[in-house]
Design a protein that fits this description.
With about 220 residues, the protein is of the alpha+beta class. Helices cover about 55% and strands about 10% of the residues. It contains nine helices and four strands, in the order ααααααααββαββ. The protein has helices spanning about 5-10, 10-25, 35-50, 55-65, 80-95, 100-110, 120-130, 150-155, 185-205, and strands spanning about 155-165, 170-175, 210-215, 215. The chain has a four-stranded mixed β-sheet with strand order 1-2-3-4. Helix 5 (about 80-95) runs antiparallel to helix 6 (about 100-110). The longest helix has 21 residues, at about 185-205. The radius of gyration is 17 Å and the shape is globular. The chain starts with a helix and ends with a strand.
Length: about 220
């Protein structure tokens, strides 16, 4: 079995992720480096583990999380599809079983809100983990007056927490936002589609999605 630790420490994969993030940095995008992909991997693993999915599925979703943005190496446009193709080649070359590759490739190919559908539990957990990673430390630009809307929204979030309740009926994204940098309206202006798909992803896992901003329930 190919493990998450093997993928995380694979030299070639780390080069691809580094170069993909450098390409996004040149275009002015927020951080998509190891801090982001590792956080997504661990959060996706937390979701399935908390919902009592078996250890093998937890490993698969963590691998999908670590690899999910690798397609940015090719181009930002349709990066989920190119990333799925890259992941297929990498994992096939490493000798991963076809059934496991299929799960990971499907999840990666469906993680973008423009084209993605939470087809199964792994895809759903990856989507929730990825779209909940909104935080100040992802903003590269340090010149606040020149922030675009994505910089403002991410910079305004001083705490982001995604948790499943004890009854395992709800998954809540809780954000603490400093509104002097960005309004709640701006958050929805760029992330409304993501939040709708988070609701659908949660439903695939048998959960209700809730969004709280500054302790106010908005979804």
């Amino acid at each position: 079995m190919i493990t998450y630790e093997q993928i995380k420490n694979n030299e070639n994969i780390r080069i691809y992720i580094t170069k993909a993030d450098q390409a996004l940095a040149a275009m002015g995008y927020t951080d998509h480096s190891f801090g982001h992909v590792a956080k997504v991997a661990e959060m996706a693993g937390y979701i399935l583990e908390t919902l009592n999915y078996d250890g093998h599925q937890v490993e698969l979703v963590k691998i999908a999380g670590f690899l999910h943005d690798i397609g940015n190496l090719v181009n930002r446009a349709e990066h989920s599809q190119s990333g799925a193709v890259m992941a297929f080649r990498i994992l096939d070359k490493l000798g991963m079983p076809a059934e496991d590759i299929a799960e990971i490739v499907t999840a990666i190919g469906n993680h973008d809100e423009g084209t993605g559908i939470p087809i199964g539990p792994i895809a759903a957990a990856l989507f929730l983990a990825d779209k909940s990673d909104v935080r100040r430390s992802r903003v590269r630009n340090r010149d606040i007056p020149s922030f675009d809307i994505h910089d403002r929204v991410n910079y305004s979030v001083i705490r982001s927490d995604l948790q499943i309740n004890a009854e395992k009926t709800e998954i809540a994204l809780k954000l603490d936002v400093e509104t002097q940098y960005s309004s709640v309206t701006e958050y929805f202006e760029i992330f409304l589609e993501r939040m709708v798909l988070c609701r659908k992803a949660a439903e695939k896992l048998g959960l209700r999605f809730r969004l709280y901003i500054n302790d106010q329930a908005l979804m």
